[in-house]
Design a protein that fits this description.
By secondary structure, this protein is an alpha/beta fold. It contains 11 helices and 8 strands. The strands form 2 sheets. It has a 4-stranded mixed beta sheet with strand order 1-5-7-8, sandwiched between helices. A 4-stranded mixed beta sheet has the order 4-3-2-6. Helix 3 crosses helix 11 and helix 7 runs parallel beside helix 9. The N terminus is likely disordered.
Length: 326
């Protein structure tokens, strides 16, 4: 046994293999008997629930929550990202100009490796290299959509039957448009066309009817609310992936001009349409509540190894475009 490792370090689970993402509301998070727990109130009773921090990637704290300093210390030691957000995980946490935002608190360490950060910053200041990296992200996004929308698992889903030829036409058209983008603005315009087409195809495939994507939940429209909720779960995984390989959230390649944590949005795009979008329409048609939909998304993340995918794409892009001498 390596004398440099402590017993607690030997039990550490890689972030990409962890099972849990928590969204908590109306509770207190604290340390009790050496364990991190959240407390809920039922009448005159206080109920204590354990949070297995070694097997957790993200904790999202919604409406009516509080967290102690001791709990934050334990989260940091276990490498758990903590995010403060609004009710249901979707509205703005605070009033500002950012369209959607979660305040992610990452664990601080002065000894984190900088290999991928050095690769990233070596090309990041070159506009054309950033554009090429953004295109690589979009190509990974297309691959994920193809893989999961047409998977055997989705083909067994009777309430979601997209026309394969239509999907291939949409993806091929977007793929071909990537080479013609001379700047990020043009790329984002093409990405908006893709997303709109996917919404229309998903609404048709699920029998949802007319659908218009609305910001901040879309009121009573269930599919819009589920899309917001699921996207925030994807942002949590993306924030974890970016943190794991040591990149600051501000070093975006596509969303940098409109998002403070743009790299999180860039990385989340890799899996959002592939994993969240279909499930939002399926859950809406089945009339599921937010908890059932959240569990549907988390199961999908685990089955598809979504965090592994995001980390691998980040690593590959960093190495592919690196200007660091080999």
């Amino acid at each position: 046994m390596d004398a440099g490792l402590t017993p607690s370090e030997l039990k550490t689970i890689l972030h990409s293999k962890r099972s849990n993402i928590y969204y908590l509301q109306y509770c207190r998070v604290l340390v009790n008997g050496g364990r991190v727990e959240y407390i809920t109130e039922e009448g005159k009773q206080s109920l204590y629930w354990n949070i297995p921090i070694a097997n957790t990637t993200v904790v999202m704290l919604g409406t009516g929550t509080s967290v102690t300093q001791a709990a934050m210390r334990e989260f940091a030691r276990a490498g758990v990202l903590v995010g403060f957000c609004g009710g249901g995980g979707t509205p703005l946490f605070s009033a500002n100009e950012v369209e959607v935002d979660v305040s992610w608190l990452t664990s601080q360490s002065e000894y984190r490796p900088t290999e991928y950060l050095q690769h990233w910053v070596s090309f990041w200041f070159n506009e054309q290299q950033r554009l090429a990296a953004a295109v690589a992200f979009q190509q990974a996004r297309i691959a994920q959509i193809r893989q999961h929308w047409l998977s055997a698992y989705m083909l067994r889903e009777t309430s979601f039957s997209p026309q394969q030829s239509s999907l291939e036409s949409i993806l091929t058209r977007f793929e071909q448009s990537l080479s013609g983008c001379s700047n990020v603005s043009e790329l984002m315009a093409q990405e908006a066309v893709l997303t709109k087409a996917l919404y229309k195809l998903a609404a048709t495939a699920s029998g949802y009817g007319d659908f218009t994507r609305a910001k901040r939940g879309g009121g009573l429209d269930l599919a819009n609310r589920f899309l917001d909720h699921g996207n925030y779960l994807a942002y949590g995984l993306a924030a974890t992936a970016v943190w794991v390989i040591g990149l600051p959230h501000g070093l975006a390649v596509m969303h940098g001009k409109t998002r403070r944590g743009g790299l999180v949005f860039d990385v989340a795009d890799i899996i959002k349409d592939a994993l969240i979008l279909p499930q939002a329409f399926i859950a809406a048609m089945k009339g599921e509540d937010e908890q059932a939909f959240r569990q549907r998304c988390l199961s999908n993340f685990q089955r598809s190894e979504a965090l592994d995918v995001m980390i691998e794409v980040l690593q590959n892009v960093a190495q592919q475009f690196s200007q660091v001498s080999k």
